[in-house]
Structure formats: C-alpha cells, structure tokens
Design goal:
With 353 residues, this protein is α/β, with parallel strands linked by helices. 25% of the residues lie in helices and 21% in strands. The longest helix has 19 residues, at 165-183.
Length: 353
C-alpha cells in the first residue's frame, strides 16, 4: 500500500532491474559497461494499455520523476494514480547507473549552481535568466537563488554527463531499445538532455513506441554550443538517426536559416528535406513551459520534425489554463496541473488497441 502526500491512497506493485549488462575489460578486471537502471511501479488495476517510460534530463537521474525538491509527489506517482504502469530509468552514467571514466570515457563539467540558474531559473536577486519570458516563470518551489533548499536539492542530485555526446546518445538508444524489447510497446516521456535518448530509442524500435512526449527537450536542431559541451549535428541528437534518403555524414544534412514567425532565426533542412522514416508514424508532442528559455528552440524542433514528415503537435500548458512553468515543470509547485495537458493529449492520441 503506497501513501502519498497528495492524491488518493493507492495499492501498487514495484520493482527494479538493469538493462544492458555488457561486460568489458577494465584496469582491474572485467566490469559492466554502460548499464541502465530501471525502476518500475504499476497500480493494482492498470487502466491504460501501454506503460510510460520516463527519461530524465541533463545530469539528473530518475528520481526527478519520483518526487520534487520540496518533497511532493512526482509525475511517476501521478501517472500510477491515473492507471499507468511506469518505468523510470537512470540513463547510463547517471544516478544508480554509475559512472567511471575508465569505462565510459571522460566526464563533462560538474553541474553548478551557476549553470542551474543560467538555464532554469526565473529572474532573481542574483541575476536574470537568459530568456525574454523568464518573468512568466513563477512556479519554482523556492527563490531559485543560492541558499534556496529546493535549488540545493536539485543541484545535489545532478552530476556530470558523458563528455562524448555522440557516444552517449548512441548508448542511450541501444539501452532504450533493449528496454522495449523486454517490456513491449510503450510511451516515451523525455525531458531536456534526455530528449536524444527518446529519439534514438524510437528510431531503433518504431514499432514499439506508441508516442513520444518531449518535455523541454534539448535543441534546437543543428545546435552547437561549445560552452555547454552540446552538439546536435544530426538534427535531434549527436548520433545519427535514420533518414531517407540515407545519410552517411552529418554534412549531408544541408541546412538553410531563415526568419521564423517569432522573428528569431529558424534553421531547417534545405528542400527537398530528408525524412525521418522511422519516426513518421509516431505521435509526437513537444511540450514547452510558459516561462521557459526553450520557447523558440521548441518551435524550431517542432518545425524540423514536421519538415521531416513527422506527426508532431505543440502542447503549451498555458493554453490549457496552466501558467508559470519553466524548464523543469515536473518539479514545480503546480506539477500535477502541468501534467494534465499531457494526460489529455495521450488520451486523444494513444487509444486502446
């Protein structure tokens, strides 16, 4: 019996397992290379035909879905209350899927308070977030400044990412495919730097992905940011996806930059655009917070997917009466309300077989 601070008392089943126990030789002997930790929970009565796989962002870990920094239930709990089985993963090298550079290569930089404020927080006493909509971000459960207990908890839970993004994204796609081979068809719900794991998994197992819900995912396509150590040279990830006509080198994805409807640069493929043939039949939602710094980036990502032949929709919580969210809406004060537009979209797009 599970008791939660918010919501109904529910009876559930839960467990955990590991995906991708590949063996390799390390300095001290044979070790496991790049496994993925998976924690699952299901209500006694599952009311939806497909489970939700929750893929965390950045240097975070699966606990980002289990609860909030100020101790409230997370989206995993609310999905179980809604009748979904959920699988919460720690991507390779994160959380309980431990990192060692002798096995997974060099680490990126540690996750800092400064980076957290730069990326995620509303304007505050210590500076202004780098986005014109930051004043709309009102739902972070604290001040967002150093000394905020919620910010302390978030930064404490975050670690470095694998420095080689192409290697990391390829590995995450492999582990995601192995997970679906084990559990069967599922919905992928991704966040931030976990976005490429979702695209790579769907590309490798399109018949097992019933929808992709991309919440504030890494972008825009063709981004290169040496300061953050981020490069998405293949459009949606640093590792290649399946295009038609095929692509053997990233330079074959020729691009053109124009002015978008919002007056910002919009970089897409030159026409005729290559198609993402394995993603074309999968319903895709791009979810953006009202006060997020990714407003324009998500517009670019949605346009890129549409040009590549995908079935993509924008989900804006404020259009459903949910206001004030930023990049980490699953952790914010109104996280249950922010989930509702996604639940409604899934009800419409992923019917029972």
């Amino acid at each position: 019996m599970a008791v939660h601070e918010q919501g109904e008392l529910i009876t559930s089943r839960r467990g955990f397992f590991w995906i991708g126990v590949d063996r390799t030789e390390g300095p001290g002997g044979t070790v496991v290379r790049g496994p993925m930790y998976v924690e699952w929970e299901a209500p006694a009565e599952v009311r939806h035909p497909y489970p939700v796989v929750l893929i965390h962002g950045g240097g975070g870990q699966g606990l980002d879905w289990l609860g909030t920094p100020d101790g409230r239930p997370g989206w995993a709990t609310y999905l179980v209350q809604e009748g979904y089985a959920v699988y919460v993963v720690d991507r390779p090298g994160h959380g309980r899927a431990a990192y060692h550079p002798d096995v997974l290569g060099p680490m990126g930089s540690p996750f800092t308070y400064e980076l957290s404020r730069f990326l995620f927080m509303p304007p505050g006493d210590e500076g202004t977030a780098p986005n014109p909509d930051a004043h709309l971000h009102t739902q972070w459960p604290g001040t967002g400044n150093v000394g905020d207990p919620s910010l302390d908890a978030f930064v404490a839970s975050s670690g470095p990412m694998i420095q080689d993004f192409a290697f990391a994204h390829d590995l995450e796609g492999t582990r995601g495919a192995e997970l679906l081979d084990r559990i069967g068809p599922a919905i992928l719900l991704t966040n931030s730097a976990g976005g490429p794991a979702g695209w790579m998994t769907a590309d490798r197992r399109p018949g097992l992905v019933k929808a992709v819900v991309a919440v504030e995912v890494m972008g825009p396509p063709f981004m290169s940011n040496p300061q953050l150590g981020v490069s998405l040279v293949w459009g949606l990830s640093a590792a290649p996806l399946t295009y038609d006509p095929p692509v053997s080198n990233a330079s074959q994805l020729r691009t053109v930059t124009t002015e978008g409807a919002d007056g910002m640069p919009l970089t897409l493929q030159e026409e005729p655009a290559r198609r993402l043939i394995n993603l074309q039949g999968i319903p895709i939602a791009i979810v953006t917070g009202e006060g997020s710094f990714l407003g324009h980036s998500d517009t670019n990502t949605a346009a890129f997917l549409e040009q590549a032949g995908c079935n993509v929709e924008r989900v804006r919580p404020e259009e459903h009466g949910v206001h004030g969210n930023g990049h980490l809406m699953m952790l914010e004060k109104n996280n249950r309300e922010a989930l509702q537009p996604i639940l409604d979209w899934l009800d419409a797009k992923v019917p029972a077989p």
